[in-house]
Amino acid sequence: MDLILSKPGEIVKRLCERLRTERLALEMTQADLAGRAGVGVNTVSNLEAGRNVGFETLVRVAMVLGRTKELEDLFLPKLGSIEDIRRYENSAKRLRIKRKLNDA
Q1: Which residue of 20, 39, 43, 87 has the smallest Cβ count within 10 Å?
Q2: Domains assigned to the chain
Q3: What's the pLDDT score for residue 87?
Q4: pLDDT tens digits, one per residue of 15-66
Q5: Are 37 and 44 contacting, i.e. CB atoms less than 8 angstroms apart?
């Protein structure tokens, strides 16, 4: 799935459709998934419909569906060069990014 030119709403819709398809492929009802994830049936319904549901809920559902591996790579740094690695290592040491003061 190429999401580069997609709008956020389109991405949410496609991911929610996949979630529903995955649940159905595992022959689970929304109630089954909700019970195993520790959330309400309405929450699962809202998630599948792309309505406002928290990230933790998404993670809980992904765990029940056996899809946590996909989450592991979600925000890994893009390291294409030695300079990228150095920059990443240095940023991990930094506690805060200093603001630049404008001379007025």
Answers
A1: 87
A2: 1-96 (1.10.260.40)
A3: 81
A4: 899 999 999 999 999 999 999 999 999 999 999 999 988 999 999 999 999 9
A5: yes
